[in-house]
Amino acid sequence: MNATLDRPHVWQPGAGTPPLLLLHGTGGNERDLLPLREHIAPDSPVLSPRGTVLEHGMARFFHRHREGIFDEDDLRARTDELAAFLSAAEQKYGVPAGSWVAVGFSNGANMASAMLLQHPESLAGAVLLAAMVPFADEGPEDQALNGKRVLIVNGNRDPMATAEQTQTLAANLRRRSAEVEVLGFAGGHIIDHDQLPKIRQFVSYW
Q1: Is residue 56 among the annotated active site residues?
Q2: Does the chain have fewer CB atoms within 10 Å around its N or its C terminus?
Q3: Catalytic residue among 106, 119, 122, 192
Q4: Is 102 exposed, middle or buried (0-12, 13-18, 19+ CB in 10 A)?
């Protein structure tokens, strides 16, 4: 296997669009989000990698100093690694470059938004579930995300992905010309299955 692809992952081929990049939350693995495919894009190909960082034995996509405080230097490095992984996967599995729609939960959502900000060429868009702001300093306004579509799905009672986090994340993405939709629900730090039909409608754009 290509060394860049030498990390645990699941590939499920499909004839539909868009190809999905599934990014699990803390303590999850490459199989956690696979059931979402049947709900939001049952014919789409799916790539689901495992986070390569361990925190007390739990897999994550990047280090943090403590809950809610990210190690941003590590996040940038891990984002570069994931972008290289996606490029290798595109070649191996025959996926058009930059056509992925990331679907991430919690830590995976934060990785997905970091990917949009640091490697916008890697993704067509994203569904961010229980998402926080990845970088404290997002830099100047630009057009790097023009044409990218993002859906943020955060619970109104989420103690981590708070209303302030949601608003700031949406504003940061919009400053870069992303088309951002925010979908709230009466719940906490979870994937709310009642929102899956709306997520499916969002993903069907591609």
Answers
A1: no
A2: N
A3: 106
A4: buried
